[in-house]
Specification:
Blueprint (H helix, E strand, L loop, with lengths): L1 E6 L5 E5 L4 H10 L3 E2 L1 E5 L5 H13 L2 E5 L2 E5 L10 H5 L6 H10 L1 E5 L12 H9 L2 E6 L2 E6 L7 E3 L5 H11 L5 E5 L5 H12 L3 E3 L6 E4 L4 E2 L2 E3 L4 H13 L3 E5 L7 H7 L5 E4 L4 E4 L11 E2 L11 H7 L6 E5 L10 H6 L3 E5 L2 E5 L8 E3 L3 H13 L3 E5 L2 H4 L5 H7 L3 E6 L1
Parallel strand pairs: 2-16, 3-14, 4-15, 10-11, 19-20, 23-24
Antiparallel strand pairs: 1-24, 1-25, 4-6, 5-6, 7-9, 8-9, 11-13, 12-13, 16-18, 17-18, 20-22, 21-22
This protein binds uridine-diphosphate-2(N-acetylglucosaminyl) butyric acid (EPU).
Length: 420
């Protein structure tokens, strides 16, 4: 078991090149099942979830290997359409293999995915959309058995909510289906556009991604390609929050500037100066942040991202005044607040809302990561705290951040990993 030990009080200053996006790389790895030939993915972050995806690919008969941040995937010999329950339970994104396997083999057997405990995470929208495309889906004692009645065909699908995963599953199934699929109320997250960019590089016919209506015309064959994964906007937001919490100065390179816009405009309310270039973000923070002047409401993209709620909350714990958050995406995404309160924060959770009153000091404590972004929030608060914080259960953090302690150390922070 490993822990992160953080000695707070250092100002984070310097330049950092951002890692590739986890939430882009995972569906793109699944999508490589659809391409006949070799896919070379550059900018693939080295994360436990990425290795879980590669184990699933290898299990289906693909050959997936890594060289640094490049994944090389050859799916020519893929022939297994059933993913064992244990592999499915390792991460939420395993559900994306449902659409990819259906697109490739016309059938699959999966089970409910694992991933962060953020409240109930049903897959009803995935299932009803795929049924519309001619897939028969049965729950067999927890195993979800999917089989096409004849050929999988295009359909007109209106999602009740712009679910990221459901949009991805429909796209993956539709690129090789017969005819045209239209997704109304599709998710508009940048990672969806990255997935579509990869599929287009493989020869797929997709338009409208980044907007609410995506049109996919099925192709009988897709080919391999070389593709660069976009950088991770939530990792970017996390390092910005660490810098803001400690009154530092940061240059982020390899940044997806457009994808960070909604986060940046909220962070600016705290008095930070932020300038953007083509692929870089410059951030200069005051010694004391102002409280957020507007209520932060998490919304589907282009709204404020739910994945940045906990880390922003951690950044403003010592701000001047009161800030209010409203979590609208997940039912249970304030689990990090107990640990922050233990460190001296003043937070009151009232249903969907969390009210944060700025305190003058935070103190080091022994805490456990509750989920990926909640764990990252504890790391943000620890850097702004007096004394030493020990963060346990860091396997959550390792699912999304490539050697977080090395990035922090490069910026002058004191964070180290120990085995216990
Ligand atoms: N939902 C349903 N039914 C469904 C699908 C979703 O009710 O069939 C609900 C969920 O329960 C949730 C909401 O819709 O309340 C949003 O879920 P969505 O499907 O959009 O999220 P996801 O695909 O499960 C991805 C990211 C999450 C990120 C969300 C929202 C990946 C691997 N995960 O999850 O990332 O929070 O979109 O942007 O892409 C993270 O990286 O820490 C993380 C949790």
């Amino acid at each position: 078991m490993q822990k992160l030990i953080v000695d707070g009080g250092q100002c984070l200053c310097g330049e950092l090149s951002l890692q590739g996006s986890k939430n882009s790389a995972l569906p793109i790895m699944a999508a490589s099942l659809l391409a006949e030939g070799e896919c070379v993915l550059t900018g693939c972050p080295k994360l436990t979830d990425i290795y879980s995806a590669s184990r699933i690919l290898n299990h289906t008969g693909c050959r997936c290997r890594f060289s640094g941040n490049t994944a090389v995937i050859n799916s020519e010999s893929a022939d297994k359409s059933s993913i064992p329950e244990k592999m499915m339970s390792e991460m939420r994104s395993s559900i994306i293999f449902m659409g990819a396997l259906l697109g490739r083999m016309g059938e699959c057997t999966v089970s409910c995915p694992g991933g962060c405990e953020l409240g109930p995470r049903p897959i009803d929208m995935h299932i009803s959309a795929l049924k519309k495309m001619g897939v028969e889906i049965n729950d067999n004692y927890g195993r979800i058995v999917c089989r096409a009645k004849g050929k999988i065909h295009g359909a007109r699908i209106s999602l009740p909510f712009p679910s990221v995963g459901a949009t991805e599953n429909v796209i993956l199934c539709a690129v090789k289906a017969e005819g045209e699929t239209i997704i109304n109320n599709a998710a508009r997250e940048p990672e969806i556009s990255d997935l579509c960019g990869f599929l287009r590089a493989c020869g797929a016919d997709i338009s409208g991604d980044g907007e609410s209506r995506i049109i996919i015309r099925g192709k009988t064959r897709l080919h391999g390609c070389e593709y660069g994964i976009m950088s991770d906007r939530i990792a970017g937001a996390t390092y910005m929050c660490m810098t803001a919490a400690t009154g530092g100065e940061l240059i982020l390179t390899n940044a997806c500037v457009n994808a960070e816009e909604s986060f940046i405009s909220v962070l600016e309310q705290t008095g930070c100066s932020i300038y953007t270039g083509k692929d870089r973000i410059y951030l200069k923070c005051p010694r004391k942040l102002k409280a957020l002047s507007e209520r932060v409401r998490t919304m589907p993209h282009p709204g404020f991202p739910t994945d940045a709620q906990a880390i922003l909350m951690a950044a403003i714990l010592k701000s001047d005044g009161t800030s209010v958050f409203e979590e609208n995406i997940f039912d249970c995404r304030y689990r990090h607040t107990d640990a922050l309160i233990k460190m001296g924060a003043d937070i009151q959770v009232l249903g969907k809302a969390a009210v944060v009153k700025g305190v003058s000091r935070l103190y080091g404590a022994s805490v456990d990561a509750t989920d990926l972004r909640g764990g990252a929030a504890m790391a943000v608060a620890a850097l702004a705290a007096e004394g030493t914080t020990e963060i346990g259960s860091i396997s959550h953090i390792d699912r999304g951040y490539e050697r977080i302690e090395e990035a922090v150390t490069r910026l002058g922070g004191k964070m180290r990993r120990v085995s216990v």
